[in-house]
Amino acid sequence: MFKLISCCQKEKAKYVGQYRITDSDSLEAAMEAAGRIRLTIEAKLSPGPPMLNLRRHGVIGRWHGLVDNVASGNFLGAKRRGVVNGIDYGFTGEVKKVDVSRIRERLDSDSIVVVSNMGYSSSGEVLNCNTYEVATACALAMEADKLVCIIDGQIFDEHGRVIHFMSIEEADLLIRKRAKQSDIAANYVKVVDEEGINSLQKGDYKSSLNARAHVNGYAASFQNGLGFNNGNGIYSGEQGFAIGGEERLSRSNGYLSELAAAAYVCHGGVQRVHIIDGTVDGSLLLELFTRDGAGTMIARDVYEGTRIATAEDLSGIRKIIRPLEDSGVLVRRTDTELLESLNSFYVVERDGSIIACAALFPFPEEKSGEVAAIAVSEECRGRGQGDKLLDYVEKVALSLGLEKLFLLTTRTADWFVRRGFSECSIESIPEQRRKRINVSRGSKYYIKQLQPKHAGVTNNNFIIR
């Protein structure tokens, strides 16, 4: 995980598009704010562990001083934005270079690197850069695993439920749908993949998404010290993805701006972006260290190879579940029964082989679904494939309008309890399913409520279909 904290200032300013105009007074205020925030962050990260703990474990001497785990400096090279379309942006800067080697040295020594939005020009000036341009440029230049964006709210679907996950394809499609309603969304489409719109209109959406974003057929890549390739071999001034201006401040587009920045860096190679609500205490810890998280994660390739099963997968599924049937973990199914229920199975395929499977049997009238036959091939166990598949099944269930999942198990209760299921009575199982339960197996019943509805204003602009 790329440990970078970006400082920003909050001052009333004049914006043109995504950028603010920075005069000399605004620059002084920005420098003061950035310096104060940087010092505060460094102070909060400097204390050592509690002395009581040290005394208990008998190591005191080397911890008497400050903990040297915070690093900041002139890691960010910038140049003046200059005059654009007749507008002089003053001391507003654009990212030109990220000092990757010096940042990595400090990260490798277990330091936390603090990078502010103040950039340094080759002529010795301090420039006020767009915070999101800095964050996205740094993430791409450093090839970060994750980028965390802290906002002042949450992203909801049309039912008032927090969207915990969006694939890059879903985020991209949503942004493109709103491209005519938002300047920032339109800028995302223009910057990321102009040809993708044509592919989308032709129905060939998947083919417009590559491992890296393409602009006019060229891969957009960060050229440190030069900028982003604009597709013509000329390096433009704008590096990273800047968001801001009145559109973002007024929240007229919800959190579409942050979603566009997240999708942009995912196109550029960042694996995951977490958008979390900073008004919730401990939201960062909850997002990173709990299974369902507290915010919205945008990710690329999380469900790579996962798809609905076909008849050709029957032998692969049979190979995985047979040992579990023999040991009594799973109910034994005949090939005929498997074929009849194949459209309810999902598989994970790797190198032409099925390595995991699971089934979801919906009961729409009760807004519930049964999870069954979760199995991972022996050679792939312990690598998170079961979690990935359960995540996928939960996501499918939500897309079907289901509000809870249930299951019957004899020997795997602990695994499901650790993933949010709790024991329930047989009365919690839909009546239609209860009639077919083989009570002689002595199965236990478990249930999980999917994302409950949240109070407050919903954002109808964010809909997953």
Task: Please outline what is shown here.
Helices cover 31% and strands 25% of the residues.
Keywords:
465 residues, alpha+beta, 15 helices, 31% helix, elongated, disordered C terminus
Account of the 3D structure:
It is a single chain. The protein is 31% helix and 25% strand. The protein is of the alpha+beta class and 465 residues long. Strands 21-22-23-24-25-27-26 form a 7-stranded mixed β-sheet. Strands 5-8-11-10 form a 4-stranded mixed β-sheet. Strands 12-19-20-13 form a 4-stranded mixed β-sheet, sandwiched between helices.
Largest sheet: 7 strands, mixed
Mean pLDDT: 81
Number of helices: 15
What value does the Rg take, in angstroms?
26 Å
Structural class of the helices, strands and pairings? alpha+beta
Indicate the proportion of strand residues: 15-25%
Helix content: 25-40%
- Give the overall shape, derived from the CA principal axes: elongated
Ends apart, CA distance between termini: 30 Å
**Which stretches are low in confidence, meaning pLDDT under 50 for 5 or more residues running?**
6-11, 195-220, 227-237, 452-465
* Strand neighbour order, sheet with most strands: 21-22-23-24-25-27-26
Strand segment tally: 27
Pathway: Amino-acid biosynthesis; L-arginine biosynthesis; N(2)-acetyl-L-ornithine from L-glutamate: step 1/4
Catalytic activity: L-glutamate + acetyl-CoA = N-acetyl-L-glutamate + CoA + H(+)
Protein name: amino-acid N-acetyltransferase
Family: Belongs to the acetyltransferase family. ArgA subfamily.
